[in-house]
Design a protein that fits this description.
Number of domains: 1
Structural class: alpha/beta
CATH topology: Rossmann fold
Number of strands: 12
CATH architecture: 3-Layer(aba) Sandwich
Strand order of the largest sheet: 2-1-4-5-6-7
Largest sheet: 6 strands, antiparallel
Radius of gyration: 18 Å
Order of helices and strands: EEEHEEEEHEHHHEHEHEEHH
Oligomer: single chain
Length: 259
């Protein structure tokens, strides 16, 4: 479980459509700083769209999302601060506080491992390149990949690529971490090593949302479990409440199939 304090996340009446299809239909989530939320549910329930909206990778059509104390709020207008809609440069600064780990790794194929992980802090945050290389090598050591620093992504296993992607997110010193099915593209034997890195290195005191189909992992790491279906939150509570004694028939049916 997470203990120290990250930035809170408050989501109110969130709505997201793709054309006529309403993918998120009035989502409300209030996450205290430093807590971890595990999001579970069937494919197409809106889980991945939810985390992409928090990072403003998807525009929203209604409601609001507030991350931390910066004053920036995502609305249907875009990312706003002080009543003004922010431009791309300021949106990049907003995103810098939020680490995102995708299911498909999203590493730059033309850059080495060390090139991938220093690109954002040097390019976006204007940090010193040598300092970032030193920091990157230290983090790579913590995920047992220091010897792969000059390797290109195509020569890494899926588990290694995902560990690099986690390090890349951590290089920005994020207050919030978002994980979108971080093990879904991995073979079962590689899943454990990535989940271990998430639990021991990535979450640690940060406010985190983890979309996952690994129910045992969600039980171990999350303070709260949210079950989604058809763009709505069907049920939310502690891991014991949602996974062991769900109240809603839809939750019971889903968990019954997953066990």
């Amino acid at each position: 479980m997470s203990t120290s304090t990250g930035e809170p996340i408050k989501i109110e009446a969130l709505r997201k459509r793709f054309g006529a299809l309403e993918v998120l239909n009035g989502i409300d989530i209030d996450i205290p700083g430093g807590k971890t939320v595990g999001v579970i549910g069937p494919s197409g329930s809106g889980k991945s769209t939810l985390v992409r909206c928090i990072n403003h990778l998807e525009p929203i059509q209604g409601g609001r999302i507030a991350v931390g104390s910066s004053g920036a709020v995502i609305t249907a207008r875009g990312v706003e601060s002080g009543g003004r809609v922010l431009g791309q440069r300021d949106i990049a600064c907003y995103r810098a506080q939020i680490g995102m780990v995708f299911q498909s790794f999203n590493l730059f194929p033309h850059l080495t491992v060390i090139g991938n992980i220093v690109a954002a802090p040097v390019g976006v945050l204007k940090r010193d390149k040598k300092e970032m290389i030193d920091k990157g090598m230290d983090l790579l050591g913590k995920v047992n990949l220091q010897d792969k620093a000059k390797t290109y992504p195509a020569h890494l296993s899926g588990g290694q690529q995902q560990r690099v992607a986690i390090v890349r997110a951590l290089m920005m010193d994020p207050k919030v971490m978002l994980f979108d099915e971080p093990t879904s593209a991995l073979d079962p034997e590689l899943t454990g090593e990535v989940l271990k890195v998430i639990a021991e290195l990535a979450v640690r005191g940060r406010t985190s949302i983890i979309v996952t189909h690994e129910l045992a992992f969600a039980r171990d790491i999350a303070d709260t479990i949210v079950f989604m279906d058809n763009g709505r939150i069907v049920e939310a509570g502690t891991p014991a409440e949602v996974l062991d004694a769900p109240r809603m028939d839809r939750t019971k049916a889903f968990i019954g199939k997953m066990i």
